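Hello Y.,

Per our agreement to keep a running log of every chain we model this quarter, I'm adding this entry. I've kept the format consistent with earlier entries: sequence first, then predicted structure.
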Amino acid sequence: MTGIYPLIICGGNGTRLWPVSRTQSPKQFQKVGDATSATFFQSAVERHRGPGYEAPCIVSAARHRATIAEQLAEIGCTAQVIHEPMGRNTGPAVLAAAMVLQAQNPDAVMLVVPADHVIEGDLNSTILAMHSSALAGFIITFGIKPRYAETGFGYITDGGPMIEYPGLRQVDRFVEKPPTRKARLLVESDIAYWASGISMFAARTIIEEYEKFDAATVAAVRRAVSEGRQAPDGLELNAEHFGQAFAGPTESIVFEKTRRIALAPLDVDWSDVGSWTAMYGISKSDTQGNVLQGDVIAVETTNSMVRSTSRLVTVVGLKDVIVIDTPDALLVTRVGHCQSVKKVAEYLKGGNRVEAERHVPAAATGPVRGFNGMTTLFKNDAVEMASARVMAGTTLELDPTARREILVAKGSLIVATIEANVTLVAGQRLDLPGAMPAVLVNTGDVEAEVLVTTLHGQTAVQTNEAYAELPVALYA
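Predicted structure for the entry above:
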């Protein structure tokens, strides 16, 4: 019997964990604790490695491909990666993975795992015990006994045991984010569970059930897979067809309608870490009730969280506060008010502030070590020049912001775009039009160095007839 394929979906922007989480570097790719800890994504991958599991399958936005490759390399894990050209919620993401895995293994069983949760306890014993039930055709959703009346979670109510399938229980109903009074009644009923976001089923089962309720989306995703492009770092779904899929969660499209649904209770500590208050709650505190991460000094301060990613932060005489400092933004709030941080991110987006989308290196007179492996050398309103070292066997994603000129100074790189792959060696340059995402791929055995010049407000010029049919111009 083959093992279970963990399917890790890296969707969501995690705006409640701003300013660490941004649209282009969201929560799942941030570290759970201090600088030495794993990221949420890495923790999710590591949680389901070992006996009973196959190599994971990752579904994520194409713009995160470099981050995924880098973080998988850090933990020494190989995976199948599916790149989404746009977000269509969890339903189409799960469908695409199911089609890919079923083509490889008709008996493939998938374990859908959120990339941004924190779980402590024996999770895998229950999951592995449900393998045969998934092969039998059940769609299993895993529930967690609620510790308090949370209005931001979904609930599943227990409909009684399934005698022929030990450990499985019938699902009575789903309750999505109830008001406070109803949440309290659910918790007091002793038959309700938090919906963990973890589920398991055979690939063929989810495809069959999805077809019953949304055949058009199944057809669109099937064509997105079959007409996708196999890039060096994963499958790129066809954008035209994937865009025709209905953007909805698997839970409302299938789980709440199918007769194959079943509940498996989990006995673990679980948090979706949906706010800085939740992050404070899951972190280990000192004798004063403080969680201090990074270069932090706290004097006469209690029950607070202070996190610094780049410089010394000092706090004096504070209580019940959260301070999150990054190179380009500072958040100060009170414990219990952190759900409103999302409003800050929305305000920034409404004002077209770059801080909502990505981290911005702080200004300095010399080179600035930025994010995504880039070092800013020079910057003004018209031109920005940066350098990067791309280690052997890794990738680096370039944001599709404006016209960019790429010059390889050392080694060789493949520049992968949605239209073509072009190989550059030392001394060669490439011109990328604006709004075109690109990934630098180092398939060689030695480190490569590259200079990237961004020319704001300028258009690309074709300079080599040999590449006239490509969206880029290559010249020595």
